[in-house]
Amino acid sequence: MIDTVLFDMGGTLEDIWVDDESRHSSIQGVLDILRAHGIDLNMDFETTAQSINAGWERYGAYRDPRQRELKPEEIWGSFVLTDFGLNEDSVRPYAEELAHMWEITHYHRTLRPHVKEMLEGLKGLGMKLGVISNTASLYQVFDVLKDYGIRDYFQDVTLSSVTGYRKPDPNIFLVSLHQVQSDPASCAYVGDTLSRDVIGPIRMGFGATFHIDSYLTKLKDTNVPADVKPTYSVKDIYEVYTILKDAR
Predict the structure, then answer these.
(1) Bridge-partner residues for 5, per DSSP?
(2) Which parts of the chain fold into alpha helices (H)?
(3) Do β-strands 108-111 and 14-17 pair in parallel, antiparallel, or remain unpaired?
(4) What is the predicted pLDDT for the residue at 221?
(5) Model pLDDT for residues 42-74, shown as the tens digit of each residue
(6) Which residue in 153, 198, 146, 203 sits closest to 11, CA to CA?
(7) Cα torsion through 149, 175, 216, 188, rounded to 10
């Protein structure tokens, strides 16, 4: 029987999307933070944006095949800002500031409808609840959960930036399972990507997987084998509660 429900963050508990406005704002945010710390890149905006985006591509090429997450000073100092002559030591004092800003600015974020009602329902069933999120910031997920007013529902929040492992690597799931003290067979995982949020829990022997579409689904789910299927596909996240309630 399922007694624990673990959630992805971006695309699952919250809707997230990227557009030209958020892309521009995040680049400007980098410039503002650097300038506040006495660094003026002396480069036009478009060239700066191209270099920063190229830096993220370098990091993605390192990160994705390894399913690893580096610390903010390594990400920004060894990948994203290297074209500007910066390094880990120089960005270390404000690396988390950059990481946090990027996560909340590059992506528009809003809490999905009915999340609070779903969490309240699961709490009423006696479920243990947690979050497992891939993120390049150490604190952003905690802060956003608090801003949404739902932080206190979760016994555990496990982040790739803290563990060093990204979904679907088994180690990030193992950390969360140890934290909530649950057996995989008694856990359900809820996420928006087959490549991370279904494949990972299936490999770990989770009792159920839930999939909900988001802006990220098609972007992240290229080359997923056709036989990878969630236990449940839902349109409204509140269905997680109703399905688990009916299964009791």
Answers:
(1) 129, 188
(2) 20-36, 45-66, 72-75, 88-91, 95-105, 115-124, 140-148, 160-163, 170-180, 199-204, 215-220, 238-247
(3) antiparallel
(4) 80
(5) 889 999 999 999 999 999 999 999 999 999 999
(6) 198
(7) -80
Q: How far apart are CA 159 and CA 124, in angstroms?
A: 26
CB 203 within 8 A of CB 228: no
Other beta carbons within 10 Å of 78: 19
- Has residue 19 got a pLDDT over 90? yes
Burial of 64 (0-12, 13-18, 19+ CB in 10 A): exposed
Alpha carbon distance 159, 142 (integer Å): 10
Using CA of residue 62, residue 21, residue 150, residue 185, what is the dihedral sign?
A: negative
Sequence-distant (6+) residues with CB within 8 A of 243 are: 210, 232, 234
